[in-house]
Design a protein that fits this description.
287 residues, alpha/beta, Protocatechuate 4,5-dioxygenase, Chain B, 8-stranded mixed β-sheet, 21% strand, 10 strands
Length: 287
C-alpha cells in the first residue's frame, strides 16, 4: 500500500521566493533564513517521495471573494504557475498525480469531509516557495520538481475558516485515504503558511516568537490538544495571518500517532525572525 513517510512544515513568505528568484540567498539578511533549509535540502535528496500532498492557501489567484472553497484538492495532471501581478515566478510548472488525488478525494468525501474538486488551478507562492525551500532553485526552462505534487488549498483568508480540530481530523482522513491506495507509493504531506505575522492595521508587523516556539513544541508533543485552540487565540497571539497555522494541523493529523501509532521523530527544527515582516518556522517529522 501507499504510505505517508514524513511531514514537512514551513512558512511560505513571498519575499523568500523573490530572494531565490533574484539570487539573493547568500546576502547576509537572507542567508540567515536559508541556512535553516540547508539540512532540509540534503534531507530531501535522501528522502525523496513519489508524491507530496501540499497544503497551502491561495492568495486570490486561483480563487477570489466570488468563490471561496473551504478545502479544494487539485486533481489535474499539471498546474500552471500563477501570475501574481508581476508575471509567473520563474520556476518549473507543477506535475500532479491525478489518480492519487482522485482517490483521496473519493475516500475523504466518503469519510464525510466536503472537498471542492479543482481540475484546473493555477498555484501561487503559497505552494511554490515551499517547493523551492526544500528542493533548491530550479530553472523553469530545463528543470522539473523531483516528485509529483497534489495541491490542497485551504481557505484561511476569508472568515469563516476551518477550525484546528477540523483540520487535524482531515489529516487523519487523508492518511486513511493514502493507506487505501492499492500500490506502493511514498507520500509526504506538507503543511505551509505562518508563523506569526500581521500585514495590516495597527498591529502590522506583529511577531510573537515565544508563542511561535510554544506552538512548535505542542505541534510535536500534543497535536490533538493543540487542535482545540480557538481561532481567537491565533489572531490575538500570532496576528491576523497567524491563522494560517491551522494548515499545519492537517499535515500533523496525517502522522502515525494520529491513528494510534508511534509519535514521529523530529528530523529538523528551525525558527528565525524576521523574513520580510514575518516569523519563519520549519519542521520535519519522520513517521
Amino acid at each position: 500500500m501507499a504510505r505517508i513517510s514524513a511531514s514537512v512544515y514551513t512558512s511560505h513568505v513571498p519575499a523568500i521566493g523573490a530572494a531565490m528568484d533574484l539570487g539573493k540567498e547568500h546576502e547576509p539578511y537572507w542567508q540567515k533564513v536559508f541556512s535553516g533549509y540547508e539540512f532540509s535540502r540534503r534531507w530531501m535528496t535522501q528522502h525523496r517521495p513519489d508524491v507530496v500532498f501540499l497544503v497551502y492557501n491561495d492568495h486570490a489567484n486561483a480563487f477570489s471573494l466570488e468563490l471561496i472553497p473551504t478545502f479544494a484538492i487539485g486533481t489535474a495532471a499539471e498546474f500552471a504557475i500563477a501570475d501574481e501581478g508581476w508575471g509567473p515566478r520563474p520556476v518549473p510548472g507543477v506535475k500532479g498525480h491525478a489518480e492519487l488525488a482522485a482517490h483521496i478525494a473519493q475516500s475523504v468525501i466518503q469519510d464525510d469531509f466536503d472537498l471542492a474538486i479543482a481540475n484546473r488551478m493555477d498555484v501561487d507562492h503559497g505552494l511554490t516557495v515551499p517547493l523551492g525551500l526544500m528542493c533548491g532553485k530550479l530553472d523553469a526552462t530545463r528543470d522539473a520538481w523531483p516528485f509529483a505534487v497534489i495541491p490542497f488549498a485551504v481557505n484561511v483568508v476569508q472568515y469563516p475558516v476551518p477550525s484546528g480540530r477540523r483540520c487535524y481530523a482531515l489529516g487523519q482522513a487523508i492518511r486513511r485515504a493514502v493507506e487505501r491506495w492499492d500500490g506502493p507509493l511514498n507520500v509526504q504531506i506538507w503543511g505551509t503558511g505562518g508563523m506569526s505575522h500581521q500585514l495590516q492595521g495597527p498591529r502590522a508587523g506583529l511577531i510573537n516568537a515565544e508563542w511561535d516556539n510554544r506552538f512548535l513544541d505542542r505541534l510535536i508533543a500534543e497535536p490533538a490538544k493543540l487542535a482545540e485552540m480557538p481561532h481567537i487565540e491565533y489572531v490575538r497571539e500570532a496576528g491576523s495571518e497567524g491563522i494560517e497555522l491551522v494548515m499545519w494541523l492537517i499535515a500533523r493529523g496525517a502522522m502515525a500517532d494520529g491513528a494510534g501509532g508511534s509519535p514521529p521523530r523530529v528530523a529538523h527544527r528551525f525558527y528565525h525572525v524576521p523574513a520580510s515582516n514575518t516569523a519563519v518556522g520549519h519542521l520535519i517529522l519522520e513517521d
